[in-house]
Amino acid sequence: MCGVIGYIGEKPCVELIFKGLKCLEYRGYDSSGIAVLEEGAISVIKSEGKLDKLAPLLSALPHNATLGMGHTRWATHGAPTKVNAHPHKERGVAVIHNGILENYQELKIELLEKGVRFQTDTDTEVFVHLLNQELDTVPDLRKALLNLIQKL
Ligand code: GLU
Asked: Measured between alpha carbons, how far is 137 from 101 in angstroms, rounded to an integer?
């Protein structure tokens, strides 16, 4: 279980996302994180523990961002640490996830054999690398996601 919130619109979203996460904190409270997109760059903050520990990091995010997402984690794969907190970002992709990728181990082995290096112990990170690989050949996010879903 976890809490997931996303925003795309015209208002600055950092505070909105944080307030949304506060409402969802009961769904996961071992760690949390927020990613926002501003001027083509993704910025991420993460913290171990409850949302109160994430609050002091909000000022590190670009406050004009109007697109972003947040996560409160209830760990299933990987310890409840800052490094395992969502969002997971690699190249131009940032991912948050609720639930379990049941076949992540097979997929992770395939990725490791291809030389992919993992930063975390989560099942979710498999998704990030697979999406990047898919986008390398299918540079259309919707199509890449639909292709990827078949493998999960
Ligand atoms: N399986 C993912 C993890 O352990 C997501 C857990 C959740 O739903 O919060 O990071």
From this structure: 23
